[in-house]
Amino acid sequence: MVVLNKIYTKTGDAGETALGNGTRVAKHALRVTAYGTSDELNSCVGVARLHADGEVDAALSRIQNDLFDLGADLCRPDMEQDSDAEYPPLRVIDSQVERLEREIDAMNAGLEPLRSFILPGGNALAAHLHICRTVARRAERLTVELATLETVNQAAVKYLNRLSDWFFVAARTANNGGKDDVLWVPGANR
């Protein structure tokens, strides 16, 4: 359980922060940027939920929880020492990726195949889901870059890759099953 009695600690005033294993790093470190972007994405999902209801809202709630799991995973760099940790570190696992795949397949089953690229937009929920998609892609790019320098849980990378796909299909679903998607017209304004 997390207990926060005091919100400010002043320990970051010099531009450093602590990772999940206690190591102090610069606040601009790539690992911090990666999990900070997953936190930003979680906030975007929170805004999208203002326009969602029913199963979409429930799915977005699950995703928000997963994104906290992802942040906990990314803030703990020493995967090879997981078994020695006092408390087992929280890691994203393949079943979370597989759940996203099942949900994507279920949503996509009701959509017509795309014959054009679509522009982000449509109704409010779809527009917010497209914002979530692009922030998820940025979080994925940062996490993949981090993985070239340090050890990163590959399930976390896969999760982010599927998540952006989930947001894309969910946005189409929110746009009246794709019927209200805004299609790209190449060269329309030449």
From TrEMBL:
Gene Ontology MF terms: ATP binding; corrinoid adenosyltransferase activity
Chief location of this protein within or outside the cell: cytoplasm
Domain Cobalamin adenosyltransferase-like: start-end pairs: 7-174
Enzyme Commission number(s) of this protein: 2.5.1.17
GO cellular component: cytoplasm
Substrates-to-products reaction catalysed: 2 cob(II)alamin + reduced [electron-transfer flavoprotein] + 2 ATP = 2 adenosylcob(III)alamin + 2 triphosphate + oxidized [electron-transfer flavoprotein] + 3 H(+); 2 cob(II)yrinate a,c diamide + reduced [electron-transfer flavoprotein] + 2 ATP = 2 adenosylcob(III)yrinate a,c-diamide + 2 triphosphate + oxidized [electron-transfer flavoprotein] + 3 H(+)
Family: Belongs to the Cob(I)alamin adenosyltransferase family.
This protein's name: Corrinoid adenosyltransferase
Organism: Sedimentitalea arenosa
